[in-house]
Amino acid sequence: MEHRPSLRTERAGPPLSATGSSSTVHDAELRFRALVRASSTTLYRMSPDWTQMHELTGQGFLEETAQPCQGWIEKYIPDADRNQVLAAIEQAIRTQSVFELEHRVLLADGGFGWTHSRAVPIFDQSGELIEWFGAASDLTERHRSQARLDESEAAFELLANTMPQLAWVCDALGSVVFVNNRWQEYFGAAVDGAGNGLMTHAGVHPEDVGKTVQDFALARASGQDFTTEHRLCGQNGTYRWFMVRATPYREPHSGQILRWYGTSIDVHDRHDAEDQLRNFNEQLEVEVQARSRDLLAAEAQLRQMQKLEAIGQLTGGVAHDFNNILTIIRNAAELLRRNPGAGDKQHRFIDLILETADRATKLTGQLLAFARRQTLKPETFLAAQRVQQIAEMLRSMVGANIRIELSLPEQDHYVNTDPNQFETALVNLVINARDAMQGAGDITLAVSAAPALSSPASAPTVIISVTDQGHGIDAANLERVFEPFFTTKAVGKGTGLGLSQVYGFVNQSGGQVSVESELGTGTTMRIALPAATPPPPSQQEIAVPLAVNDAQVLLVEDNAQVGEITVSLLQELGYKTQLVSSAAAAIELLQDRHPPVDVVLSDVVMPGMTGLELADVISERWPGLPVVLASGYSSALSQGSQRHPQLLKKPYAIDDLLKALNRALHR
After folding, report:
1. How far is it, in rounded angstroms, from Cα 17 to Cα 129?
2. Where are the domains of the chain?
3. Per-residue pLDDT at 512 exceeds 50
4. What angle do the packed helices 419-436 and 383-398 form, to 10 degrees?
5. pTM above 0.90, yes or no
6. Element (H, E) at 356
């Protein structure tokens, strides 16, 4: 704390006259010299106008001088303090009153010191001012002690404000005199705590007040540390448990308690855990040993993985069977559409059936993507258009308290990737954003174009970003967010596979995925995919003609209804068709070479030998015979690497079937 020099002037008493006999004067001089030697105070004499110092006895504080000194102000007074000292001198001379001032001085060693200087005017018998006599006390150590105290208090306050706990100081009776920033964050910025009772101001739960007051009274009486646990009400109106510990500070000589220095540590999670353990023991009526937290987390993660794997297998199986049903529905509708006798009303119903089958096909595609049973089938599409379409579904998924905002460009930006996996990636990112915001806030989906990440001169990329207002990701975890099984969610709240699926899909598609996040400000996930050129009109507008073909098709299908409707469809298209229900029957027929076969159309998932295995046998024994595989459940194909032949995805339209057979026959 800075002490400002103070000036106090007062009118001197009766004039001090220089009269008396020479012996009297000599005796007085001797007594004065003895007083100076016995005193630790610096004494000095000044001329009436203070322009000359007659004498100064330093007493080890200031440099002594027994000779008149004209430059005393430069010798003893620092530059910054001279105007103040000269102003006080001018005031004393003008009023002929006592000079008194606290100011800095230059010490003999070149350093700075502090002094309290007081000088009185001396008058002769005629009342004329003949000299100033003064004394200067050494206050240097006091000022240094005060500076150390100020530094100590500032360091204490800085340390207290960096603590994550509530820190406070109260007087001997419990009245708060200091609280740190964490205290204000918990109770509210408008609350400073000063002058309030510790027990009443801090919002102690009514059920805990009695015990808290009792514990504080025992600590005051015994002089020991004050310890207790109680619930405190924060500014949001909820109570949390805190462990309180305070140490008394005593007056060094008397031992009297002056203040209590304390902290309040949040132990709410511990109390919750104890309550849960207590309830668990009461319900089961058994005692259980504490298990390692890491082991519990690992077991929970394993159970979650097993559950997801089981769900994936079930989902894939259901999608496969559902695709067979859709194949029957779609092909039957296609056959009905080709009936020349059908009227407009029947055609409208047929179109409705086909549209519904298309929507159901999309649903099964999403199920297969979840089950990881689907290979990538890249298509060229508008990124902004696909984001806008999936946004409607996402709004129904995230809940009423989440708003999904779109930021879409006016220009068309195409990408070439698997649309189903693209949508799955967006779903994963949005669900992560929803969880990070704890069910309330805004999520922004944006599409933009930018230069490729690898080189400014390379082709542009299309950026799809998902931005949330959640709690963010700390720097230590930022580089690990795409690692498989890594998650910051609580046990049972996440598998750690969502972002790793996004990472794998984007990299497989030739793009990059990145994340920007800061604690307390939210997170932005960015998917960068290579920009694609718009597809030629022929891919969008020109339909494949339904050419009549008399080729012999061997159809291998274990589902009787699918086989029956497919035979009808092939015959309608002009193909000669032979139906068998297994791969073994197909091999037997091919060995007999009767009738001769031009192309094999086989299901993938069949009992015994699969369609992929059948294709391998045909490739080895009849290398010139083309094979088309049809399935709605293609995990076997994804495992077949580059060996698998052309794939026809169920349910398929007439155009898809014709294209697949024509490509196989003319390859």
Report:
1. 10
2. 22-144, 163-271, 294-367, 376-536, 545-666
3. yes
4. 40
5. no
6. helix 344-370
